[in-house]
Amino acid sequence: MDIQDLRIFTRVAAMQNLSAVGTEMSLTPGTISKRLQALEDELSVRLFDRTTRSIRITEEGALFLEHVDRILAELELARASVDGNVKSPRGKLKISAPVHIGGREVGEGISSFMRQHPEIEIHAELTDRNVSLQEEGFDVAIKTGVLADSALIAKRLATNPHVIAASQVYLDKHGVPKTPNELERHCCLVHGEDWAWPFARRNAQRSVRVTGRLRTNDDRLLMRAALDGHGLIRVSSGRVRSALADGRLRTVLEDYDTTGDSAVWAVYPRNRHMLPRLRSFVDFFAAWTRAAVDEDHQCKDVPVSGDGGRIRSAKENQQAAAPQPTRSKTPAPARKRAPRPRKKTAKRA
């Protein structure tokens, strides 16, 4: 039984498209079909029901797939144990990640990882869409926010601090909310199904259901709407760092923690055993993400008064708080008094 045939079988089972598997593995659809047929002939069982428009795994094929996934994973581990992969990870790694985590570009992190691990080949797709790891063949996906329940394994890399912000134009028109309850009369820009915004203060937690004119799963659209004065946005602090620094947005309800359960996660399928290259990537990205989050905290901007409503950056605040050097004044030399003229007295005769 050919190992390559088993790999083809698992990819066809996941993607259910011969052309897509052929593109991924640099083979023609005809070759993929012949290799599957050869595998079925060897097993004397039909693994897929095929028509001109679709391909669907059979019950026998699904049972066979469970064993094949385990065999291929064990094969990878066996190979790693003898070829030095444990000390020097190598091989291909297909990654999905958002374009940004906080205020940093994920591409920077991937580039740093490649410098540290020159023998790992990276296929990265940077996107904010929700990818299907199994069907699209990803080894790992970096995700932000609150994860939905699934059969995937998730490793928490770092918290993902959030703030609530709006443009000065919106706040001038609708007022600044002082408590979470006041959000009920404000226009809020909602990400996906995130209608309940969490708040924590002094060990007390609660959520407020918000409403608004815009709901979308696109962060860029939410940012554009907030900048244009359409409402309040709950967003990762790093995503609005520059907008806060230059005054385009202003944070509100700063006394409350609105992070909730939001975090940065590494997600991978259950059948992907922690191979050395995957473990190396997850460990590296955990450290990189924590550094990104710490950077966001250090660069957090706060509003100041007496400055036209402008948001002053953390650096400016540090400079303002620092004791100002005093110039040493050299005492001026004492002025010499001119001698007082003496009164002339008449000489006695």
From TrEMBL:
<comment type="similarity">
    <text>Belongs to the LysR transcriptional regulatory family.</text>
</comment>
<feature type="compositionally biased region" description="Basic residues">
    <location>
        <begin position="334"/>
        <end position="349"/>
    </location>
</feature>
<feature type="compositionally biased region" description="Polar residues">
    <location>
        <begin position="316"/>
        <end position="328"/>
    </location>
</feature>
<keyword id="KW-0238">DNA-binding</keyword>
<dbReference type="InterPro" id="IPR036390">
    <property type="entry name" value="WH_DNA-bd_sf"/>
</dbReference>
<dbReference type="InterPro" id="IPR058163">
    <property type="entry name" value="LysR-type_TF_proteobact-type"/>
</dbReference>
<dbReference type="Pfam" id="PF03466">
    <property type="entry name" value="LysR_substrate"/>
</dbReference>
<protein>
    <submittedName>
        <fullName>Putative Transcriptional regulator, LysR family</fullName>
    </submittedName>
</protein>
<feature type="region of interest" description="Disordered">
    <location>
        <begin position="300"/>
        <end position="349"/>
    </location>
</feature>
<dbReference type="InterPro" id="IPR036388">
    <property type="entry name" value="WH-like_DNA-bd_sf"/>
</dbReference>
<dbReference type="GO" id="GO:0003700">
    <property type="term" value="F:DNA-binding transcription factor activity"/>
</dbReference>
<dbReference type="InterPro" id="IPR000847">
    <property type="entry name" value="LysR_HTH_N"/>
</dbReference>
<keyword id="KW-0805">Transcription regulation</keyword>
<dbReference type="InterPro" id="IPR005119">
    <property type="entry name" value="LysR_subst-bd"/>
</dbReference>
<keyword id="KW-0804">Transcription</keyword>
<dbReference type="GO" id="GO:0003677">
    <property type="term" value="F:DNA binding"/>
</dbReference>
<feature type="domain" description="HTH lysR-type">
    <location>
        <begin position="1"/>
        <end position="58"/>
    </location>
</feature>
<dbReference type="Pfam" id="PF00126">
    <property type="entry name" value="HTH_1"/>
</dbReference>
